[in-house]
Amino acid sequence: MAKVFFKSLMMVAFLVSQPFAIKYPPFALGSFVLEPKEGKTLEVKNLVSQFGLKIKDISPSLRSKVVYFPVEIDTCELRRAQEARDYERLWELYWAEADRVLTYVAEFRSSGLVKYAEPNYLLYATYTPNDQYFVDDGNYRPDGGPDQFGCFIMRCQEGWDITRGSPYVKIAILDSGVDIDHPDLFENIWVNPGEDIDRDGIPYDLDDLNGVDDDGNGYIDDLNGYDFVGGQKGLMVGDLPVTSEDWNPDVHYYGDDGWGVPDPSVGDGLDMFGTPGGFLFPADMGVGHGTHTAGIAGAVMDNNLYFAGAGGHCKIMVIRAITPEGTGNESDIASGIAYAADNGANVLSLSLGDLGFGASPPQALVEAIEYAYRRGVTIVAAAGNNGNRGISFPASSPYTLAVGSCNSRRQRSSFSQYGSGLDVLAPGGEANLTSGVYSEVIWSTWVASIAEARDSGLVAGEHYIKGEAGTSMACPYVSGLAGLILSLNPTLPPDSVYNIIRRTAQDIPPSGWDEQTGYGIVDFGEALRRVGVVETAGKPSVVTLGLPYPNPANASLHIPITLNKPMEVTLEVYNILGQRIKRLLQCNLDAGKYDFVWDTGELIESSGMYFIRLGTPYGDKMNACVIIK
């Protein structure tokens, strides 16, 4: 059973004045990113070998590559600085090693062999930072306890009256991983049909994990997604350079997946410099951030448990590219973006952003974002949480929809970044920027980290629910809406989805678009009414579900189906309470006419009205019938 906990939420110490102009490490140590010029790949590899470095493709679909080399930092000196909390010395050690990165970048830029070479920039999960300790001492809403006030602001119910989403629409959550077997997420986790050997649709089924790349996509056992962070514990030194990738983006499901128990995904109780208690960063966000954003977009609806995800029955593809401390380097994130695009994601949700390092956005990410967009992926990104003018990347990309945060008063949240690239707002809570205390939070699914276990007596890796605030929370609401739009019309290109969401937003004065609030707060009802019907009048339907016969039926029921093209179909029976009682069919069918016969004698329930649902990538069809026992 999941647990409820509350948290005292304070801005951490690194938001105050510091001895260096930079507040966060801008790039990873021990690696940098480049793209060879056309026809120069072999020469680049030779130069890499001359320097004694290692090179690796970011993705089979992208030309960018990441180059690695061993970190040579004095770990004893680092530990002494950590124990003494010597902030200035920690930065000296960091920059001494960072200079090696910049030297290599300069060498490759001057070689004339590369289109670009740059540091492996770090991006940060866009949750509003919390204090380093966890306490279960109260709540942050006037009437107390978890709720989903944001859904009422966005008129979700009106939208859900039109569609509750299709399981054929996949929302990729690229984040810190997801607690896949959380009771309010498990049923909505995407199962890769090419890796689902026994075809039972169960996430992390041991029968499917055979150590083989069954679908030939280059990733072994990517049954529910992929983990590009692997065994990294989030430390800046030693763990951020070359590590093995981990097929399992979950925390603890089925115990030891090769990284130990508890999985390092849960964290190690330290910040990214190995400091207990979060001297520079909060210790161990763990997999909680990704679990929280996944729940906002995809918590199981109508299961009498906790929350209703904005995307209803849309499936969640899990991609882990953020470490337990909330950082992700551009090469891992670019790999995750390409994975989503290559494996059928309809929507990509990015609750992360850069901090403005470099004269331009990280080039590997620029190319990965454009690649996904060209593949037809709708990309939704968080605007950022520093409260300043200017949208963080990738939300600032012309290929994404930039989402800021609003509070319960329908105002821009004080922490939400704004500017010329802002598209819309969605509920993300509120925080006092002076005291750092959350005054409003968005509740969702959560999983406890090692630091939370140490400081508050929680169980690391256990299922919880939690309130958080930030544009990270606003982003998956809009990702869920995009999933609903594509459930009605999966043929819409990204720009059409963006424009539907923009044009139907609830305007906030002054009239029209403005850089503080964009086009306004997203409106589920208006957006889904704008989509219209899937097929144009006069155009034959791609899918037809005929009327079942005989009706009433007492022995067998014929269900006519017509498909105008090959596709995967699911045929299911529901009772009048909306509960699925039988899955009749789940397979790929060729184009043609079919007459599926169901033996109603299998029905355990009593006589009454039942609903036949045909699910396809082109939308859902449903007809009613009466069964007499």
Secondary structure: number of strands: 25
**Strand order in space, largest sheet:** 7-8-6-10-12-13-14
Low-confidence stretches: 1-23, 127-140, 231-264, 276-284, 533-540
CATH class value of the largest domain: Alpha Beta
Structural class: alpha/beta
Give the terminus-to-terminus CA distance. 37 Å
Q: Please state the CA-atom Rg, rounded to the nearest Å.
A: 25 Å
* SS field, number of helical segments: 12
Count of individual domains: 4
The gross shape turns out to be globular
| Whole-number mean pLDDT | 77
What keywords describe this structure?
6-stranded antiparallel sheet; Rossmann fold; disordered N terminus; 7-stranded parallel sheet; 25 strands; globular; alpha/beta; 629 residues
What does this structure look like?
This protein has helices at residues 41-50, 75-84, 87-110, 149-153, 156-160, 288-298, 330-342, 363-374, 450-456, 471-488, 494-503, 524-531, and strands at residues 3-4, 27-36, 54-57, 65-68, 114-125, 170-175, 225-227, 315-320, 327-329, 347-350, 352-353, 378-382, 401-406, 424-427, 430-431, 438-440, 442-447, 463-468, 543-545, 556-563, 567-574, 580-589, 592-599, 608-616, 619-627. By secondary structure, the protein is an alpha/beta fold. Strand 21 (567-574) and strand 22 (580-589) form a beta hairpin. Helix 7 (330-342) runs parallel beside helix 8 (363-374). It starts with a strand and ends with a strand.
